[in-house]
Amino acid sequence: MNAERVGYRDENLLLGAFLTTAAFFCVAMVGTLAKVSGQYTSTGVLLLFQNAICLVFILPVVARDGWASVRTAKFGLHMLRAVTGTGCWYALFFAITQIPLANATLLTYSAPLWMPLIAWAVTRQRVAAPTWIGAGVGFAGIVLVLQPQGRSFSAGEASALAAAALLAVAMMSVRWLGATEPPLRILFYYFLLSTVMSVPIAVADWEPVAPAGWPWLVGLGLAQLFSQALIVAAYRHASAEKLGPFIYTVIVFTAVIDWIVWDHRPTLAAYLGMALVIGGGLFAMRAKHDTISAAGPPRHGP
């Protein structure tokens, strides 16, 4: 086991898979609650409360452990993660006001397909052919979901794809941070920086919250908090490479919720697109994992 894996325990893949699935059920609930809350206030206000509620809960934990526990030499990476994560959530929250929740979530969580392209652009390191094949299959699924023939590309779809690219960078930054930073420190800086960044966005986009919207806003923040806590707990029981495929459970959960709550029944093309995105993503992940295994232990850092 890598000595740098802070807080890592003996592997328990079953428990790690369960916790990851629970985490992405909470992520699906974040999207659902954001869509409902959006009826009562603006996207900027949603973003602020999502982050601020999480920060309120994590501050006492940090204070208990001592402020020395959040001293870091990786502030730049924390900032990168916060900027891309905040941008991703804003773009997703906007997208779900324009297009069905399931489509917005599918497009956003196509992020693993973008990671080989971003990694190549940043590092110029060679990407294995099977990884490109998996990504290509996934992008074909995105085209099926978008069905661009005969209609214009909507702002909601463009926003969801922008969220995917931002999420891909955020996921890569978390991986780099996870090599040396403990989970509490990663969560603290994300919620702190994201809350600070959300304030001017909320001010510029301010709409008073209707009384009926407050329970939904609180639920949104708690769902985000639980999703982050569960994924951190999951990574203490199994590696990110082995748990990565479970990210796609959010697409299934969201499609079911969208169908039940808003009666958005997926079309055959949407089903095929989901299958290709998930299948292509799993193939790309597996190919990348096999390449890393054959090359030896990974080197951490950007």
From TrEMBL:
Membrane topology according to the record: Multi-pass membrane protein
Primary site of residence: membrane
Gene Ontology CC, one term: membrane
UniProt keyword terms in alphabetical order: Membrane, Transmembrane, Transmembrane helix
Domain of life of the native organism: Bacteria
Translocase is among the record's keywords: no
Subcellular location: Membrane
Residues of the EamA domain: 15-146, 156-283
Membrane spanning residue stretches: 12-34, 40-63, 75-96, 102-122, 129-147, 153-174, 186-204, 216-236, 243-262, 268-285
Ribosomal protein is among the record's keywords: no
Similarity remark: Belongs to the EamA transporter family.
Name under which the protein is recorded: EamA domain-containing protein
